[in-house]
Every structure is written in C-alpha cells, then in structure tokens.
Target: NADP-dependent oxidoreductase
Amino acid sequence: NREWHLLSRPVGWPKDEDFALVEAEMPTPGEGQVLVRNKYLSVDPYMRGRMSDAKSYVAPFELGKVMQGGAVGEVIESNAEGIAVGDHVLHFFGWREFAAVDAKTAVKVDPKAAPLSTYLGVLGMTGLTAYAGLLRTASFKEGDSVFVSGAAGAVGSQVGQIAKLKGASRVIGSAGSDEKVKLLVEEYGFDAAFNYKNGSVSEQLREAAPDGVDVYFDNVGGDHLEAAVGQLNLHGRIAVCGMISVYNNTEPAPGPRNLARLIATRGRIEGLLVGDHYDLQPQFVQEVGPWVASGQLKYRETVVEGIENNLEAFLGVLRGDNTGKMIVKL
Ligand code: NDP
Model:
C-alpha cells in the first residue's frame, strides 16, 4: 500500500523534496468501515492551499502524514451495513492505493450509470462547483453574457457550457494555449475565446466581449479579474471560485486597480465555496447528468497512470498540463 506524504511545506512552487511516496501498512477496516482499493484519484488546485499552514477553510495537511483528496474505488472488505464487497464508493482518502473508510462518509457510485472517473469531475465536485457558482453565486440568468477564465479546465469548461445550454447571449473563455482556445470554440461552443499568454488580458477581453460581460466566473484572479471588472456591465456579477495565478506566490498579489468601477456598475463580487452548496447536488445531477449522457455537455479528462505519478499529476494541474479534469488512474 503506497501513499504520498507531505514532508515539508512548499515555499513557492512545490518541489519533489517536499513529498515522498511511502510504503505503508495495509489498513484494517474497523467496525462500520470498508476497505477500498482506489481506482481513480483526484488532484485539484485547492490541495496547494492545504500544503501550506496559513489559516483557511480547511485544515492543512499534516507533515509526515498521508495527504487527502477525492477518490473512487472498489470495496474489497466490508464491516458496514449497506455497502458490500464489489460496490464502488466515492470518498476522501486519495493520494494512496488502499483506504479504510467510514461507511458514513462514503458515497456509493454506480459504474454502470457513468464512468467511475466522472464522479470526481463532470458529475462530481468540480461539476457542482461550476453549476452552483454560475447559477447561485453569480445569479446567472438567460441572456447574460458570461466570461470564464481557466475555461479549458474542469470547472471552467463546464461553466461555459452550462451557461450556453441555459441561454447565455455570449460565452467567452480564456485559456493558456492556442489548442485549448480552439477546443473551446470548436467543440464546446464558446462564442469567443483567447489565449491569455498571447497578449494583454484586458485588450483581448475587450475584443472578445465588445458589449461587456454580465457574469465573470473567476478561476484565475490577477489580471483576469482586473480585465473582467473593466468589462463588467451594469449589475454585473463576479463569482470568485479560484485564483490559481496566485497559489504559488510568496507575497500577496496586488488587487485589481479598477474596483471603483463596481460603483458605476453596481457590480457584485462574491466568493464561492463548493462545500456550501451540496444541497444542490440532486438538482445538479438531475439536470447535468442527462446533458453529459446525451453529449450536449462535453468533457475531457487528462488521465495520468500510476500512484507514482500522483505528484506529477498534481503539479501538472498547476502548470496547465491538463485539459478538463486531471485524474490519476491506478
Ligand atoms: P483546472 O482543471 O482548471 O486546472 C487548473 C488550470 O488552471 C490549469 O489547467 C491551467 O490552465 C490554469 N492555470 C494555471 N496557472 C494559471 C495562471 N497563472 N493563469 C491562468 N490560468 C492558470 O482546475 P479546476 O477546474 O479543478 O479548478 C479551477 C479553479 O477553481 C481553481 O482556481 C480552483 O482552485 C477553483 N476551485 C474552487 C472551488 C471552490 O469551492 N471555490 C472548488 C473547485 C475548484 P491553462 O493552460 O489555461 O493555464
């Protein structure tokens, strides 16, 4: 049973020496627990935050101990009612091959209803983030024009497509490569997209959204946020989902210089934490599930194989190696 430990808190970009793949004992499931052989592990940008010990909404990973994260696996031993050997469960003990999991915290998932990896992505946490963030935090309504950054990623690609399916007047995305930009327009149906590495974000957004934006779904922060404030329409809304451009900063990044525009626009800016929105999960699955099944909502996954590559997959998310959800397959 191999598992990834955090050895030291990364300063700036995480380094290989901050982590170790450790051979650990096989866990024994106690009363009310199941033993799970993990099949798919999630790696997510928020994990960078848990590697630091700054006070946050979730406790830091402990040094010298196995890290955590979303995972889906098969039950190979059960001491719990309601979950049998052979069942598949979604749980929170990733970064390892085997886990003893409290049945109460495990969610049964059906590999016949959808591919197992999708419970970590398009039908899972990142999907719900997109759905709740757009519909609830950003109060999206039909006819809105929507700008989303990180648009070829797990959350962003779903935000843009849900907005389109729900009648957005225009959907604009930004991403970090020309290939990703092409995917947004040609496959996901975005009306416009640009590569933020090709020039000024403000200028490129102005060109892509000449009539301004009603909703900005922020995955990136920094100059993207400033550009969006600059293009915000009257009563525009900004949902702050993530700010991946600053996660490895060692000093706080300067904020947008144009926030006074919020007065003229009566703009609203609001943070979003997916954990607050699990009441929407049934509605999310009911509405988005059929779109995924019918192909109306498309998704990609970048799959990295092997527990030994779990760390590299995580670093890859920070670098932008992924298109869609980054998944580790064991
Ligand atoms: P993604 O699949 O979008 O992967 C992250 C992407 O960020 C990369 O692929 C890369 O794409 C992009 N990126 C990396 N560095 C930069 C940078 N400096 N500037 C612009 N883009 C960059 O991850 P997720 O979909 O899982 O998460 C997206 C965002 O949502 C993150 O900020 C994450 O923290 C946040 N999040 C927040 C949640 C909440 O509850 N608030 C829940 C889930 C996610 P590219 O090639 O385009 O640069």
About this structure: Residues 34 and 315 are 30 Å apart (CA to CA). The chain has nine helices and 15 strands. The chain has a mean pLDDT of 98.
